[in-house]
Amino acid sequence: MTHPATSLHTNEFSRRANSYLKHNIIQEQVVKKLIQNIKTKPKNILDLGCGAGAVYHEINWEIDKFTGIDQAKNMCTLHPRDKKVILLEQNFENENLLKNLGHFDIVISSSALQWANDIEKLIENISKITDNIAFALFCDGTFNAIYTLTKMPNFLPNSKHLLKILKKYFHIKHEKIIYRLNFKDNISKFRYIKQSGVSGGERKLTLTQTKSLIKNYPHTYLEFEVLFVWGKKI
């Protein structure tokens, strides 16, 4: 069964592909940091949730093959095309798909794995096709003030829980960063949430809740909690 948050997220990315490229300020910072800390210059790369090519654009070394997986078709159409690039419009949690792709020097994912239905099973499957990982995941501190005010359940994963899972399969180094993005007014904040691709629960708010948030949201910023992980297979 597809988790509602995962389905919603995929639809938002696909339907708002062009809008997303203009509003992914935090995602741009995240992918830059993630790739800058890969020191091995891997030649054969798998990117899970490749989208419009943020990871591919940041790679500044020579590669032999780049495979990207993303089930948001409209995002994939914006990804750079090259003889070294293979794009698969599939669900990256598909175990048979991953198993049949062969072995990779590294599996990278930026701002995508947090939407997995079964993150532990996915990490286990990833460990079977690579010795190295580089992940950045949005965690449950993202939009914390919104969830606190509305008392809505937070569907994003907890960073401590993620680290516990990852350490079963990889020796890792990690870093958690809280980003803050400032806005001139509350309407601008919620417009950003809707257009950025980090929306999720925002669309579950009633009209009354949304109006109340726009009026009463206490900060000049939105907060984003991101867990960075670089690891080598145990």
Structure summarized in a few sentences:
The protein has about 230 residues and is α/β, with parallel strands linked by helices. Helices cover about 40% and strands about 20% of the residues. The chain has a single domain (about 5-145, about 155-180, about 220-234), classed as Rossmann fold, CATH 3.40.50.
Structure in words:
- With 234 residues, this protein is α/β, with parallel strands linked by helices.
- Helices cover 38% and strands 22% of the residues.
- It contains eleven helices and seven strands.
- The chain has a seven-stranded mixed beta sheet, with helices on both faces.
- The chain is globular.
- The protein starts with a helix and ends with a strand.
Provide a count of the helices: 11
What is the C-level CATH assignment?
A: Alpha Beta
- Described by the principal axes of the CA atoms, the overall outline is globular
Q: What is the string of helix and strand elements? A: HHHEHEHEHEHEHHEHHE
Poorly predicted spans: 1-22
Number of DSSP strands?
A: 7
**Given the helix and strand composition, which structural class is it?**
alpha/beta
Give the distance, in angstroms, between the N- and C-terminal Cα atoms: 31 Å
Radius of gyration: 17 Å
* Fraction of helical residues: 25-40%
* Spatial ordering of strands, largest sheet: 3-2-1-4-5-7-6
